[in-house]
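TA notes, week 10

Several of you asked for a full example with nothing omitted. So below is the full record: structure tokens for the whole chain, then the designed sequence directly under it. When grading your own attempts, check the secondary structure regions first.
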């Protein structure tokens, strides 16, 4: 009986280990694509950071570089061997060598920065970075060595959920919060609230009145900005002075991700609990793009920097997917760990 019990315990332990390993690929929280090498991408799950050098065929799983989990990843667009990881509880970590080594870069960040939501790089000076955190917006001028709080004007709310920078005039930034959107016209030195058409002032007192999950700027006309929120998708054509609700036909108002085509901005994608949807006309009409998904709850959606036909989607329940036909069909990309790569 003892041997049988031992065998049963081993089987249960083995099953638990198997399930825990399986769970690692179920929730994809962030996807970062190399700006020039289409074969290199990074993925953060609830448990680890993975890197592929062969377009998702095999993956290297990085040893834990923090006691906390990763919440967002970003690749320096000008120095793509440099990777930044935002943490839950440990603020910012940085790798200078493609993920092989990681060091904390937290000087100037408040000790209670509990959640880093997003990194945004200055388009010409990538050592200048802005981050959205649960205790506000911060910036660095020296690639993360020191950070400074940038909350002047954001008096009503401190949870910053997303940031976007104007690619043609990087002094203009948009900050998404749990109470709507703010704009800065002076490189985040000050902010003003721009909620006209977004949410009535009377509703702002409610907790999490309008969480802005994603902000995307039209690269061909940066006056046009899209905001994906907990209560719908919005668009402005005048830098946020006035917003209009679009995408009312989407089956779920919660939008977690937006992708705007870099050269054909009328083509845009929205991701959320109802999967991926595509609009060919700037948000007037939408088409479901969910063929191939095992689950539809989308947490991350990115477009290939060299090929707009390529999209990656991270789901909350069935891992990573890739489309090579502009979202028409999707195929699962399992996070199969390969032996540790040489440096």
């Amino acid at each position: 009986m003892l041997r049988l019990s031992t065998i049963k315990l081993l089987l249960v332990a083995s099953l638990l280990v198997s399930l825990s390993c399986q769970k690692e690929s179920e929730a994809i929280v962030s996807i970062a694509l190399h700006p020039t090498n289409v074969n290199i991408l990074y993925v953060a799950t609830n448990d680890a950071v993975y890197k592929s050098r062969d377009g998702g065929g095999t993956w290297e799983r990085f040893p834990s570089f923090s006691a906390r989990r990763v919440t967002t990843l970003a690749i320096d667009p000008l120095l793509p061997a440099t990777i930044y990881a935002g943490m839950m509880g440990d603020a910012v970590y940085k790798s200078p060598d493609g993920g092989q080594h990681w060091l904390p870069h937290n000087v100037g960040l408040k000790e209670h920065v509990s959640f880093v939501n997003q990194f945004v790089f200055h388009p010409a000076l990538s050592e200048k970075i802005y981050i959205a955190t649960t205790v506000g917006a911060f910036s660095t001028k020296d690639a993360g060595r020191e950070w400074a709080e940038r909350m002047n004007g954001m008096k009503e709310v401190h949870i910053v959920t997303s940031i976007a920078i104007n690619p043609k005039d990087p002094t203009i930034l948009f900050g998404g919060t749990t109470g709507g959107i703010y704009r800065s016209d002076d490189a985040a030195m000050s902010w003003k609230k721009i909620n006209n058409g977004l949410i009535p002032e009377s509703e702002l007192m409610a907790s999490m009145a309008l969480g802005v999950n994603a902000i995307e700027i039209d690269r061909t006309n940066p006056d046009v900005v899209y905001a994906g929120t907990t209560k719908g998708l919005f668009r402005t054509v005048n830098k946020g002075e006035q917003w209009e609700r679009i995408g009312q036909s989407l089956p779920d108002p919660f939008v977690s991700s937006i992708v705007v085509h870099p050269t054909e901005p009328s083509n845009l994608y929205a991701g959320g609990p109802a999967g991926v949807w595509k609009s060919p006309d700037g948000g007037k009409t939408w088409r479901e793009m969910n063929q191939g998904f095992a689950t539809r709850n989308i947490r991350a959606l990115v477009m290939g920097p060299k090929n707009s036909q390529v999209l990656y989607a991270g789901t909350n329940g069935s891992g990573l997917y890739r489309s090579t036909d502009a979202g028409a069909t999707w195929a699962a990309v399992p996070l199969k760990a390969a032996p540790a790569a040489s440096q």
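Residues 1-25 have pLDDT under 50 and may be disordered. Use that as a sanity check on your answer.
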